[in-house]
Automatic annotation (TrEMBL):
Residues passing through the membrane, by range: 20-42, 147-169
EC primary class: transferase
Location within or outside the cell: Cell membrane
Keyword Cytoplasm: no
Source taxonomy: Bacteria, Bacillati, Actinomycetota, Actinomycetes, Micromonosporales
Official protein name in the record: Sensor-like histidine kinase SenX3
Pfam families: HATPase_c (PF02518), HisKA (PF00512)
Length: 424
């Protein structure tokens, strides 16, 4: 996952956890279900077998030779006799003997006593004796406890197995997704990279042609055509360069010692690029900046696009005569802050987060706007380990604040293609 962005990694992590949780849950529920079925079958079989034994003893057993864990009592005209083994405390159950003798019917009881459970059946036999059979179920109860313990251990082992299986299955299930994302980015970077050389060659060639055309005294419209061709190729080159930079940014070079960029200079370049439109719309644009540079590590063309997008939006959404103010300053924690505020139409605070979504457009928006600018801006800012937030109120203007980690001053690095702001 080395080539994935933070957002993509988060998506993959979420997908993996979801798959893992479902697999883990299914395994756990299955083990629980199997345990519950085994336990209920065992208790049911035990109950049936023990009651069968108690009833047999009550019908045929003799007090003198009781089977294991059982006691027999006979009651002849109120005289109760037990066997040679002393009975547990509280037995025989005199009430049951009297009831069975009086009603000449069988009475069955379950008695919890002496830390165990006794099954008791009292009945009057054909020979007139009333017999009470008592069975101590302590061994059956111990068996149940052992089974529960074994099931608990099995559940724990099952949980560990479920967790391990979930991890493996989760990883395998999302591997194609991660691969697809990496392949997509690779395609963009590889294609962009391969396009750079022919574009540079075409640009150089057209510049040479433009110079020769000037020397050869060609008609003015031919020279203008060559100039326009050179400008178009240069824009093409800038776009390809931006694609490469975005891909690089997406995997996070910002804040890791990228070239030093002065955010004040970026803001001023962006303002200069929008000046014609601002003048055209009778907007006042001000830049309030400290006298020294505000340096950040990053990619200048990407930052210029970000600030340019804020300015373009501000110009688009501010009616004639309005104001646009750029403020640059240092914020606590070594942060560099840029604010673009306007006195325009503003927006509903409830959509402040949503306007950063891809293709978000307010109803009635301009047809040639795609709702992409702020989404791309947020990616650029996030790639520089910064944040962007928007505040606004309908009719009361909008303010966008970008915060980036400041960088200590050091010599900057050059760039491959001349940077141009995206003018509208
Ligand atoms: N300065 C602003 N004042 C008021 N609303 C704004 C401002 N900037 C952005 N918005 C709102 O946020 C929405 C999204 O802006 P975004 O820049 O992403 O898209 P867009 O400008 O409509 O289209 P695109 O930038 O793709 O050409 C806009 O449609 C607009 O409703
Ligand atoms: Mg926009």
């Amino acid at each position: 996952m080395g080539e994935l962005t933070g957002d993509e990694r988060a998506v993959i992590r979420r997908a993996r956890s979801r798959v893992g949780a479902v697999v883990g849950l299914v395994i756990t529920v299955l083990i629980g279900l199997v345990g519950a079925i085994a336990y209920s079958m065992m208790t049911h079989a035990q109950d049936r077998q023990v009651w069968r034994e108690v009833r047999y003893n009550a019908t045929y057993g003799e007090p003198a030779t009781p089977p294991g864990c059982a006691w027999l009592f006979t009651d002849v005209d109120g005289e109760v006799n037990g066997g040679p083994i002393p009975p547990p405390a509280g037995f025989p159950l005199v009430d049951d003997l009297e009831r069975a003798r009086a009603l000449r019917t069988a009475v069955e009881d379950v008695v919890e006593r002496n830390g165990t459970v006794y099954l008791v059946r009292t009945q009057t036999r054909a020979d007139g004796r009333t017999v009470q059979a008592v069975f101590d179920t302590r061994y059956q109860l111990a068996d149940r406890r052992h089974l529960l313990l074994a099931l608990g251990v099995a559940e724990l082992v099952g949980l560990a197995v479920a967790a391990a299986t979930a991890l493996v299955v989760g990883q395998r299930a999302v591997a194609p997704l991660a691969e697809a994302l990496v392949r997509q980015r690779r395609f963009v970077t590889d294609a962009s990279h391969e396009l750079r050389t022919p574009i540079t060659q075409a640009y150089t060639r057209v510049q040479v042609l433009a110079r020769q055309a000037a020397d050869a005294d060609l008609p003015a419209d031919h020279r203008a055509g060559l100039d326009r061709l050179a400008a178009a190729i240069r824009r093409f080159g800038a776009i390809v360069d931006d694609l490469l930079l975005s891909a690089r940014l997406a995997v996070g070079p910002g804040g890791h010692g990228g070239p030093l960029v002065d955010l004040c200079a970026v803001a001023e370049t962006a303002v200069a690029a929008e000046t014609d439109r601002a003048v055209d719309r009778r907007l006042t644009v001000t830049v309030d900046r400290p006298p020294d540079q505000l340096l950040v590590n990053g990619i200048e063309s990407a930052l210029l696009r970000a600030v340019g997008e804020l300015l373009a939006n501000a110009v688009n959404h501010t009616p004639a005569g309005g104001r646009i103010a750029l403020t640059l300053c240092r914020a606590p924690g070594g942060v560099v802050q840029l604010t673009v505020g306007d006195s325009g139409e503003g927006f509903d605070p409830a959509v402040a987060d949503r306007i950063f979504d891809r293709f978000h457009r307010e109803p009635g928006g301009h047809e040639r706007r795609y709702g992409l600018g702020l989404a791309l801006l947020r990616e650029v800012v996030a790639g520089h380990r910064g944040t962007v937030e928007a505040t606004g109120h309908p009719g009361a203007g909008a303010t966008f604040t970008i915060r980036l980690p400041g960088a200590p001053a050091r010599p900057g690095a050059g760039r491959w293609w001349p940077v141009r702001s995206r003018a509208r």
